[in-house]
Design goal:
The chain is mostly helical and 254 residues long. The chain has 9 helices and 2 strands, in the order αααββαααααα.
Length: 254
């Protein structure tokens, strides 16, 4: 195997691993051949910009080790980009639970799971912002710059990297709660109001009377706050290239 071919192969492994995790590209109905073709094309564009990888003394197990390191690096970078979408799935479940819409879950082809309507709306909103604001190109730039911080085969696991990934995973819960907070607050107020009414009028069926009010109020608040949700989601999406470089820096400094 020549140096140029080996370099292209290792770049292809990292880019393909990133695409395998990114939204839309990781969807079940997205052709695998097209995803591999995009990975090969991206590697063809990135590889000439990188220093050559030496093949002198490289054994079969050494090649397997390099492929494993590049795949791990790509999955970590892709996971950082995917965290926002995981948070939106959780926020959609919280909103649907508060509005009583969990039984109306439908199949989401992008996640290959049954997702309630608010979750699908938030997921598609983030995906349209991601594409409409040209942020997918920003991620490609971040992926290309990651090679300056963690070169081919340069992944070094460290406690700082593990702590950063855990912190970002914890931020998933924070973002999900921030998105669902308006609907949760309205649902809490309605619960308090009907609790007081239930004490005042014991004959009232609080559950059946409060359900339509909770649903209508939740839908109204969800619709009125979509603009603010979109702005909040866009702010997180714009930070993804910097987050990728931060994680890449930790991967290369182990």
């Amino acid at each position: 195997m020549t140096e140029e071919l080996l370099k292209w192969l290792l770049v292809f492994v990292r880019t393909s691993a990133v695409l395998a995790v990114l939204p839309m590209f990781s969807a079940q109905n997205f052709p695998v051949q097209l995803r591999l073709g995009l990975g090969a094309l991206t590697a063809f564009l990135f590889a000439p910009l990188l220093p050559a990888t030496t093949v002198a003394g490289l054994t079969q197990w050494g090649l397997v080790r390099l492929v494993f390191l590049e795949a791990t690096a790509g999955l970590l970078l892709g996971f950082v980009c995917r965290i926002v979408f995981y948070a939106l799935e959780m926020a959609g479940n919280l909103v649907a639970t508060e509005m009583g819409l969990m039984l109306s879950s439908t199949y989401n082809p992008l996640t290959s799971t049954a997702t309630p309507a608010p979750g699908i709306i938030l997921y598609w909103m983030a995906l349209m912002l991601w594409l409409g604001l040209d942020l997918h190109h920003g991620m490609l730039v971040g992926l290309q710059r990651s090679y300056a911080l963690v070169p081919v085969g340069g992944l070094r696991p460290s406690e700082a990297l593990l702590a950063d990934v855990i912190t970002r995973s914890g931020g998933l819960l924070v973002l999900g709660l921030q998105i669902a907070a308006p609907v949760m607050a309205v649902s809490f107020v309605i619960t308090i109001v009907f609790s007081v009414l239930g004490r005042a009028v014991p004959q009232m069926n609080v559950f059946s009377e409060s359900s339509p009010v909770r649903t209508l109020a939740g839908l109204a608040v969800f619709g009125l706050t979509c603009t603010f949700m979109a702005q909040h989601i866009a702010n997180y999406l714009r930070r993804l290239p910097e987050d990728m470089l931060r994680v890449a820096q930790l991967m290369g400094a182990g």
